[in-house]
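S1.2 Input.
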Amino acid sequence: MVNSFKRKLSKSFLSFSEKIATDDEHAIAKAIGDFIDAFNERDIEKIRSAISDDAKIEGVAIGRTMSRNEYVAYLSHGLLWVDLFAFDDVLIRIENGVAAAHGSLTTRLTSGKSWQVEAIIKLRKKDEKWLIVETKVQVPRYLP
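S1.3 Output.
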């Protein structure tokens, strides 16, 4: 499994609603790609900096919605069992200043098991930077 989302960020590949992507749309895609990379690098500070301080984070393993600080504290102990995150088949829409990225989030554990969920990552621009303000996930589907 390869995180192909980051590979698809080039201006020639990326398009939104059958049109050329705007600078904001590229910035949103980059913010999501950087967030996924931070997970794969197990870089807690990069993860923290990608998330707004008032965010509501829902994850597969956490079982409830958490604040940014709760989520980062949880990850500081929980990332050890994660081998790889990938976010694919992503559709990004911007409405009323909020970007919503819908896609398939795949997690491979160090045990070799994997799961996939449909996820929504919402972002809002704050001080010229797109930050994650909310995540939602569906029930995971375990992969063979």
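S1.4 Remarks. The mean pLDDT is 85.
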